[in-house]
Amino acid sequence: MVSYWDRDLTNRLANEAFAECFGMTSAEMYGRDLREVLGANLYRLNLPHLDGVFAGEKRVFERTLIDASGETRYVEVTYIPEIVDGEVTGFSEHLADLTSRMEAEHHRDDALRLLQISIENAPIGQAIVDTSIRVIHVNPAFCAMFDTTPDEVVGTNLRQYVHPADLDTVEADFDALKNEALTHVATELRYIRPDGTTMWLQRNAVMVPGTHGTDDLIIGQFQDVTAHKVAEAELARLAVTDPLTGLFNRQAFVDSVERQRDAEPSAPVGIVFVDLDGFKNVNDEHGHAAGDSVLVLFAERITAIVNPPDAVYRLGGDEFVVLSTTAATEAYVDELADVLRDELSGTYDAGGVPVSLGASVGSTWGPIGDIEQLLRNADARMYTNKARRRGDAESVAQA
Fold it and tell me: For burial by CB atoms within 10 Å, which of 23, 91, 313, 391 has the most?
């Protein structure tokens, strides 16, 4: 929009775009007084710039005006003095319509304000990092989660908070984002607070290209899932744990055998079956609570004998099995069985009543791929030994 005004502020030229803005044609604009065209308020606002242009200065400023159709326009106004023989004889006026740009900027500012409000008040932790994983911004929820402050976090590398065991996972996720193999990654990771405590976080991250100047940024969201992971681990433990004795249960034995058999079916293992002679009489004569006391004490004794990675499993009742993955020879298993028989035979506290019980054992050794046959062999030997012990006891009684 272009116009020209003489020294008396009378219009001498206006293109159609300029005239239309004020509801006129170029012909109708010609000879009009600037004060009349602008109106009293707008003229008063522009007066300092008019004084400047008539002092020989180029003036550039932004102004809001309402055009002839009632629409609000944001314009950049340029006054350029025309100087003849050292005197200002008039000035040309250029109006650049900035409405679209200003509206876009307002929308951008509103969006940024809403984004800022969202980040600052989000119930989950949020962090913005660059492609070296250097922290640019964190929200209050992140700081509360990590027990830190923005000043302590911004500028540091987020890797320093990752548990060492999960660093490889972080690098793999980062490579996937950086190489555009994935646009989003979601992983449960362990992080370490400044005080050394460990927490589990669900971390979601996205790569946002070219948002920091020309640099890419990564936006991460963090949610504390520590309680969930603890509960999950406890459920997993309970699924393979005998609730009375705290030993591994039958399912744990099956799982362990399957893992080792799948990994190396020819690896040798030792099996020792153990049960308590006369345990049924304890339940019948003193009650099941007394029997439970005996089993708990038995579990403590056998655990003190069997050293990891060998493990003890309660199959049910007073039946226990020892799985030895360190048994290099059959002699090792036979020796372990003898120790178990001797150490586990003796006096037990059956709810305040001492009872004397003997341990019957049966052992075998061979490749874990033949586990079913090994179990049958150990079970048969245990019952053979039990019968022999019973016969010996009867012979002593008759004598």
Answer: 91
122-229 and 242-398 have identical folds = no
Q: What is the pTM of this model?
A: 0.54
For residue 78, which of 66, 91, 61, 90 has the smallest C-alpha distance? 61
> Whose CA is closest to 323, among 236, 367, 257?
257
Share in percent of the chain as helix, strand, coil (round to 5): 45, 35, 20
The CATH number given to 242-398 is 3.30.70.270
In order along its 399 residues, the chain shows pLDDT tens digits of: 999 999 999 999 999 999 999 999 999 999 999 999 999 999 999 999 999 999 999 999 999 989 999 999 999 999 999 999 999 999 999 999 998 888 877 887 776 677 677 777 778 999 999 988 999 999 999 999 999 999 999 999 999 999 999 999 999 998 888 877 667 899 999 999 999 999 999 999 998 876 555 578 888 999 999 999 989 888 888 889 999 999 999 999 999 999 988 888 899 999 999 999 989 999 999 999 999 999 999 999 999 999 999 999 999 999 999 999 888 899 999 999 999 999 999 999 998 899 999 999 999 999 988 888 988 999 899 988 888 876 665 544 444
Question: Nearest CA to 95 among 184, 188, 170, 22?
Answer: 22
